[in-house]
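In the laboratory, one determines a bound structure by crystallizing the protein with its ligand and collecting diffraction data. In a computational setting the workflow is compressed into a single prediction: the sequence and the ligand go in, and a structural description comes out. We illustrate the idea with zinc ion.
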Amino acid sequence: MPRAKTLRTLHDMPVVKGFRPLSMRANYRQAVILKLEEYEVLRLIDYEKKIHEEVAEMMNVSRPTVTRIYNSARIKISTALVEGRSFLIEGGDVRMARNFYQCEACMHRMSLLLDEDKPTVCSACGSDKILSLADCFVRGCRHCRRCR
Ligand SMILES: [Zn+2]
Ligand SMILES: [Zn+2]
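The predicted complex, in structure-token form:
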């Protein structure tokens, strides 16, 4: 029986679901898929300049696992760059440190503690069009403008 993977803890959600090369139409069949834990490792190591030990602790995985995820993320990004492929950020073996929501009317983001209820209205504009970002990024809702 395969050993269940330890879920990697995420502390943030990406701003967009993906990127596509200039002057090309989206071709999702050709897209490189970056998993959420790969995005998070790039964000923490390359963007926030954290050391691998710190990232391992934050994501609740071992140091070698961080290095493995980091290497695979870099291979994917460089493949997309060199081959001119779109890439999508979606899925992964993850759990959230907080819940993230976004208002579809004004794009305002809200991050709540795990035991807090989903907000019914946007704290910025009052709209009730609130989406859970986990639906988009972890499962891929395919309905909102982010997923299209
Ligand atoms: Zn709003
Ligand atoms: Zn979506």
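The two ends are 37 Å apart (CA to CA). Keep in mind that any predicted model is a hypothesis to be tested, not a measurement.
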